[in-house]
UniProtKB/TrEMBL annotation:
Biological source species: Bacillus atrophaeus (strain 1942)
Source organism superkingdom: Bacteria
Domain DUF3048: residue ranges: 37-178, 204-314
PROSITE patterns: PROKAR_LIPOPROTEIN
Keywords: Lipoprotein, Signal
InterPro entries for the chain: DUF3048_C, DUF3048_N, YerB-like_sf
Residues making up the signal peptide according to the UniProt record: 1-20
Protein name: Lipoprotein
Pfam families: DUF3048, DUF3048_C
Transmembrane segments: none
Keyword Transcription attached: no
Length: 331
């Protein structure tokens, strides 16, 4: 009798297991999708939205910027002189206001294509103009919409006062016949939760010279497990909200730079790979980097290192010696 009851119980358990598996596989029962560029849970319609990449001004007169807090990925690189510009890639969140918008450079066009983004800029260098007029990317140029879908803010002067919004970017994209939805290949993200480091590290990236100051600093907040950023001692905040811009990953990469014209414009080698420094969870990891399908990714012992789910900032520097790390308090 006991043996018969045991067999019945086993059969019942097996029935429940099969029923649960069938229930989980029923049509319409899906897991919550994740945003491809942050690895965080989101809505299906958001996961299917095409990225938008905006070239943003980082001249001291352009700060604080609008919309940087909404970007999933921000890539910072030198333009002319010692001033950097941002390529802000939006996908999981779209900005109501974004800017100041600045002119395109060839390497920003190429990096935007790595995310299959709609590329947004205001003006262009001769090389970027040649790229875009040959059809290298779906692009929206503020020169074509100045005073309509791009506006000039009255609190600053050109070229530091060109702004737009996702609402207007959508209108321009529709006019040009660009797709606004599509599958975006996901960045690699950690699948298990890692604990913040007991010894957290803050980071400095010096883009300046003896005569020009352009110092970027990242400070780690252990409680939030996130970094905040400052330029020349002033916290990077959103103009509209006043809140600090925060990120979970900082990736600093060394790439060859060379001057390509008399105006001091640069060519940057974003194809060949090189040395890198990955900062996450308060840790600093020496890595290499490679360009995989147009994206700059960290590599260690030949394997791609995953990012922490959240936002990512990538700093491209001519020499990794521009970066330095120090122990922080990890507030």
């Amino acid at each position: 009798m006991k043996k018969w009851m045991a067999v019945c119980m086993l059969c019942f358990a097996f029935f429940l297991l099969v029923s649960c598996q069938q229930k989980d596989s029923l049509p319409g029962k899906t897991t919550k999708p994740k945003a491809p560029l942050t690895g965080l849970k989101t809505e299906q319609k958001v996961a299917e939205r095409r990225p938008v990449a905006v070239v943003m001004n980082n001249h001291p007169k352009a700060r604080p910027q609008s919309g940087l807090d909404k970007a999933d990925v921000v890539i910072e690189a030198l333009a002319e002189g010692q001033i950097t510009r941002f390529l802000a890639v939006f996908q999981s969140q779209m900005p109501e206001t974004v800017g100041p918008v600045r002119s395109a450079r060839e390497y920003f066009v190429t990096l935007s294509n790595g995310f299959d983004s709609i590329f947004v800029h205001h003006g262009w260098s001769p090389g970027a103009k040649e790229q875009l007029e040959s059809g290298a990317a779906d692009n929206i140029n503020g020169l074509d919409f100045d005073g309509s879908l791009f506006w000039r803010a009255d609190f600053s002067k050109p070229p530091h006062n060109s702004y737009t919004s996702y609402k207007y970017i959508k209108k321009a994209a529709e006019q040009k016949g660009y797709e606004l939805n599509g599958e975006t290949n996901a960045l690699p993200f950690q699948t298990s939760e890692a604990k913040p480091s007991n010894e957290s590290y803050n980071v400095r990236v010096d883009y300046g010279t003896k005569n020009v100051t352009n110092l970027v600093e990242y400070d780690y907040d252990k409680k939030a497990d996130a970094y905040t950023r400052s330029s020349d001692g002033v916290t990077t905040t959103d103009r509209e909200t006043g809140k600090p811009v925060a990120m979970q990953n900082i990736f600093i990469v060394e790439a060859s730079h060379h001057i390509i014209d008399q105006d001091g414009r640069r060519g940057i080698d974003i194809e060949s790979g090189g040395k890198g420094l990955l900062i996450q969870h308060g840790n600093a990891i020496e890595t290499d980097w490679k360009n995989e399908s147009g994206r700059i990714l960290p590599v260690k012992d030949g394997k791609v290192l995953p990012f922490v789910p959240g936002k990512t900032w990538i700093n491209i520097v001519p020499d990794l010696d521009a970066a330095s790390i120090s122990k922080g308090e990890g507030v």
